[in-house]
Amino acid sequence: VAVFMKEAIEKTFARKISSPKPGQLQTYCDIVNTYINAPEVTHANKFFYDSLAMINYIQSNNLVSGLISGNDSLHMKEVLTYLRVNPQIFKTFIGHAEVNKFKPHPEGIFKALELLGYKGSLNDVCYVGDSMGDMMAAKNAGIDGYLIDRHNEFCISKDYIKLNSLLDLIK
Q1: Which residue has the higher pLDDT, 27 or 86?
Q2: Which of 163, 113, 117 is nearest to 141 (CA)?
Q3: pLDDT tens-place string over residues 15-72
Q4: Label partner for 102 (CA 20 to 30 A): which of 10, 40, 67, 96?
Q5: Alpha-carbon torsion angle 28, 47, 128, 168, nearest 10
Q6: CA distance linking residue 95 with residue 76, whole number of Å
Q7: Would you say residue 4 has pLDDT above 70?
Q8: How far does Cα 2 stand from its chain's mean position?
Q9: What does the pLDDT read at residue 3?
């Protein structure tokens, strides 16, 4: 599924506002979330060419998966619904409001595993993303990171597995 923002709203705020006043962060978040959750913004989202095949694979193989984004959890669900995908395919949604620390910190990954009730080995967990922040979060969590690099923008690294498409995961 498309990543809607490359960083959490709070992180963008911290970069832009050097000396915030009390309550200013909440106001900023409210404004951004109002914009992001507006129907015209939700309806502007489209799948990458490989996303629907991956979602169908997850569903047909009963894979346990979740979405982690710097975006708002409600918005992720609204976009999926708009695109005619049942959000319940994903067992958990971690947005900016569910964590205190943002990627590359692994808190979102650990929170997702906790909400999923996962007790197994981290060797059996992977994180699929499309940014260096995603790959650093995977590395910091001690799990395999799969970088989807549709436009060949990133270098090969020992820290993650680089793929051209989500379809490479299901071959």
Answers
A1: 86
A2: 113
A3: 888 888 888 888 887 887 787 778 887 788 889 999 999 999 999 999 999 999 988 8
A4: 40
A5: -160
A6: 8
A7: no
A8: 8
A9: 31
Q: With b meaning 16 or more CB within 10 Å and e meaning fewer, what string describes 7-39?
A: bbbbbbbeeeeeeeeeeeeeebbeebbeebeee
The owner of tokens 């958990």 is: 92
Q: Which residues pair with 147 in a beta bridge?
A: 129, 162
Burial of 104 (0-12, 13-18, 19+ CB in 10 A): middle
Contact 83, 47 (CB under 8 A): yes
Q: Is there a contact between 3 and 129 (Cβ–Cβ < 8 Å)?
A: yes
DSSP lists the bridge partners of residue 131 as none
Read off the tokens for 108.
């979102």
Confidence of residue 98 (pLDDT cuts 50, 70, 90): very high
